[in-house]
Amino acid sequence: MQPPSGRRNRNNKSIGSTHVLVLLGLGALGVTLWQTLMAAVSLDFSNDDVVLKITLRRSKEALPSPEVRVHQQDTRMLTKELGNTLNRTLVVTADGCSCELISLDCISCVRHLPRRAEAAKYGALGVLTRRAIRDVTSFDLNDHVGSGQEPIGKLTQYTTIGNWRSWVGSNRLPPRLDASTGSEYANETWYPDCVGDGPGQSTLRGVSCFFAGMHADDADDDIVEPEVEAMARMQISDNITTIDALRMDVSTFQERARAKDYGNLPALGYLLAFAHMTRMNFNLRPHMRQIYKRRLKSIRNSNAIDPHDDALRVGLHLRRADSCHLSSYETEASQLDSVAQVGGKRMCYKTSVYIDALRRVQVLTKRPIDVYVSTDDSGSILEEIKNDYPSVYQSMNWHFLDYSRDLFDYQGMIEGVEGNQKALLGESAVSDLFHLSNIDVFIGHLGSRFGKMSWLLATARRNTFIPFFSVDGHSVCCEVDEVCADAKRYISNMENCLAFVYSLSGLELNKDYWEVGSTVRKTAWEKENGHSLGRRQRRR
Fold first, then answer.
1. CA atoms within 13 A on the CB side of 50
2. Cα–Cα distance for residue pair 300/304, rounded to 1 Å
């Protein structure tokens, strides 16, 4: 049976079966893809499955032709129940991984990560899930998101939470960021695409120079590598049944989330939906993707070459700079009951802490490893790894962004930096977040907003759970200025895990904040439930 022909896309253009590769819902990117890739495709539609065999050629090199099945349950990414996934914040995947998001260490899940063919399926379905979200959402074209003066990590988190609450509560999203307000973290005069060159032409000011909109008109910008390759591999966007099923899944999830029906919202589905909202919000303009490509540098070692293009991508987020307020670096990762890292209590960690976690990943998987390094250290981390850990260095490939280390040499917090240095820090933060969105595994700081957002962006990109190891004693679910072991008692659902920020709660900060950290989450829980936790619940 041939794919449906004569279908019409968003722009009401006829889609014939001979255009199956070109279109893929990719718009202009599809044309570019057609020019650079050749594929031999056979499809067999039978009942609820789509069986695909694809040979993808880049230049003269042919990739294997895996057979991949897209089952009906694959289109229920957000509402599919797996094992004990309705237990608060316990994520269970179809591949056998089980992870409590309040914990610090889910590295063991690397053993359950999908290989190349299955990963392509997940990635392609992720692209289509975001398209389904757009399809069912109302966009107020007169609305926009305020850009503010926050650092990029904080801005991304706050904007995502605001959009999430609007989408769940009223099925509405602002189409794009405010393009009329400047930001100290963006110097739009550096980017020709952001500056109008004629009378009456507007200038994209502030961070709107970095990010395109969430609206359907900007949807093509949402698809970047490796999504392009995933879509080319899968060839599922022309299957009407798949698209309709994804829209139904999104609508069902949204209804349950709006009703706070947490008993019927699997943790993995909630995580994926929130991650896709983050990804839609972090929609880079083409010139920013070009900047990323120019800045990207790689060190490839002969011992780490993968002839099958199936390397495991591990993100290494080493937070230094404004987070290092103690006189010495910690030699071990912090535990869940470690101190709230407020003000002068923020901690940094020796490189050996990250390398130990990287070695664990290497032991658990037989795949070659590509390491995506992101750091605000003013020194050379790679030189340190090369000299002090030569066996690790030589057994992996390393990818990093070529920004001068002098950029990160400043005193105090990033908010205190001024001028062009601050603007370049903004650009580098955007590029680094995009860099880490490529990963399959995260090692770094989940207490950091930057770390949280990079992990969520990778989750959306892969459309599956990203195993993690957090060095700073803070999990996905708690803030860096909380004692996570104490906050854990009040994290009763995924909304509280992912979308709680004390500064957006409307509650006053506790008076002993600088001594014990934030306890606002406890206050919010008691206000919502009308009582404090009983002794039996505390012991749980």
1. 25
2. 7
Q: pLDDT tens across 264-312, in order?
A: 888 999 999 999 999 998 989 889 999 999 999 999 887 776 656 788 9
H/E element, 430:
helix 419-436
> Which residues are 93's β-sheet partners?
none
Name which of 435, 221, 220, 448 is nearest 321 in CA terms.
448
pLDDT of residue 58: 35
Q: Are 527 and 521 in contact (CB under 8 A)?
A: no
C-alpha distance across the termini of the chain, in Å: 56
Give 465's contacts (C-beta < 8 A, 6+ positions apart): 91, 93, 97, 99, 109, 268, 271, 459
Strand order of the sheet with strand 397-401? 296-299, 397-401, 369-375, 312-318, 441-444, 468-470
Instruction: For 143-177, write each residue's pLDDT tens digit.
Output: 666 666 788 889 999 999 999 999 999 999 988 77
- Any idea which of 356-365, 370-379, 472-481 has the lowest mean pLDDT? 370-379
For residues 350 and 440, what is the distance between their CA atoms, to the nearest angstrom?
23
- Report residue 187 as tokens: 């110097």
pLDDT for position 342: 85
Is the CB of residue 511 less than 8 Å from the CB of residue 333? no
Question: What is the SS3 assignment for 273-289?
Answer: HHHHHHHHHCCECHHHH
Distance CA 422, CA 439 (A): 27
Whole-angstrom distance, CA of residue 280 vs CA of residue 282: 5
Bridge-based pairing of strands 312-318 and 441-444 is parallel
